[in-house]
Amino acid sequence: MSGIFLVEDDDRLSELMRDYLTGHGYPVTVQRDGARAVETLQHIDPAVVLLDLQLPGRDGFEVCKEIRAHYRGVIMMLTARTDDIDQVLGLELGADDYIAKPVQPRVLLARIRAHLRRKTVEPCAGALCFGEFRIERAAREVVCQGRTIEMTTAEFDLLWCLAKKGGEVLSRDALMRDLRGIEFDGLDRSIDARICRLRRKLGTDDEGQEYIKTVRGKGYLFCRKNGLPSA
């Protein structure tokens, strides 16, 4: 994977973003039509997709849902719409980040770099094992009860963060600091949306219990079984 795929129908904005990101070492491919963006992605393999919501041909939500079925890189949604419902829907459909426009170019660049750093894992990163549950960080693979579970970058990073401290309650603030290096502002719904997606994907253990529990007023806990996580 290399480069950035920018899907944005505002010609002036896309030109500014392309010039800025290219100037910082990231080759950028631009597409302004949603339907064509899906087709284009079949022939390129970018590290990051920057996806506007309001597009001709097919809106950003539709594009995100369709490409996430096969694209394993980072999807970052860019939009002037700030409704919580839109943000949660974007994250539910598989986006890794949701950024309100206008955004300062240097802030966008920092967010892109942060996602790419988290996606780059050293070969010695290890694995976590909880009985029938195994998380391979180097391969970014999750196996649960014999099933290999497909995950987005953001989903895997959140699961790893919870599992490496299995049995310990982690607050939203702690998770935001670990995952994005920022404090929880009390409004961001991204952690909650990803927890919901993880629960659906992981299902329940052989006793019918969810692997991730909500501890009211405190945060989330990964329920370890058969002792401590082993690397």
Automatic annotation (TrEMBL):
GO CC list: cytosol; protein-DNA complex
SUPFAM superfamilies, per database record: C-terminal effector domain of the bipartite response regulators, CheY-like
Chief localisation class: cytoplasm
Residue stretches making up the Response regulatory domain: 3-116
Taxonomy, superkingdom: Bacteria
InterPro entries (alphabetical): CheY-like_superfamily, OmpR/PhoB-type_DNA-bd, Sig_transdc_resp-reg_C-effctor, Sig_transdc_resp-reg_receiver, WalR-like, WH-like_DNA-bd_sf
Keyword Coiled coil: no
Pfam families: Response_reg, Trans_reg_C
Modified residues (4-aspartylphosphate): 52
GO terms of biological process kind: regulation of DNA-templated transcription
Annotated ranges, domain OmpR/PhoB-type: 125-224
GO-annotated molecular function: phosphorelay response regulator activity; transcription cis-regulatory region binding
Gene3D superfamilies: 3.40.50.2300, 6.10.250.690, Winged helix-like DNA-binding domain superfamily/Winged helix DNA-binding domain
Protein name according to UniProt: Two-component system, OmpR family, response regulator RstA
